[in-house]
Amino acid sequence: MAVYECLSEISNKIIANKDFLTELDREIGDSDHGINLSRGFTAVLEKVSKDEQDMGVSLKKAGMTLLSTVGGASGPLYGTAFMEAAKVLTGKTELNAQDFLAALDAAIAGIQKRGKAVKGEKTMLDAIIPARDAYAEKINAGADLIAGLEAAVKAANDGVEYTKTIIATKGRASYLGERSIGHQDPGATSSTLTLEAILDYLKNK
Ligand SMILES: Nc1ncnc2c1ncn2[C@@H]1O[C@H](COP(=O)(O)OP(=O)(O)OP(=O)(O)O)[C@@H](O)[C@H]1O
Ligand SMILES: [Mg+2]
Known about the structure:
- By secondary structure, this protein is mainly α.
- The protein has 9 helices and no strands.
- α2 crosses α3 (33-47), α3 packs across α4 and α5 packs antiparallel against α6 (97-115).
- Magnesium ion binds at residues 25, 29-30, 32-33, 72.
């Protein structure tokens, strides 16, 4: 599987939502999330080989590129997530349902090791962890990758809604305290868009 095509789907989706993500970050952050990620994913498409079939090789390159180009808090976090997922998928050329779960688990562990956040702090984890749990439940009941990802995307969107109801305790948004309530988290939103793009890619390939 040429991960390039999937990364290209993610990149297009992030770029299409650049202003929306930046507006969300204006409300509770410093107005750069959409700009940061668009810059990063544009660079990813320049660095990752279109023909590389080893998913781990491409994801490692993508992670290193995100790490060095996105900046802010989310750059190291997204970079680590992709690099940890890469370790799980190294040597593999086709994505199966179990490997995707292992990759999600590795990505979450990487984000948590680096950012020291847990669920409920109004971060990207409030989308990604419920998505992972919904995905695991679905595939463990026998569903395939796409059906699992559909459940994951739904849970991630619910997670984004949940971030509106809680106070931020990590990152710049935490300076707002109670005033962060009512606003959805930019990182939870961008990680949901990322999962949606992966689903779109898999459905259309
Ligand atoms: N410790 C953390 N763990 C997980 N996600 C985090 C953490 N800190 C911030 N984030 C995520 O990063 C997003 C902000 O990313 P952005 O690209 O705007 O970087 P930033 O402006 O440096 O971030 P921040 O203002 O949150 O420090 C937040 O919406 C949140 O989802
Ligand atoms: Mg920001």
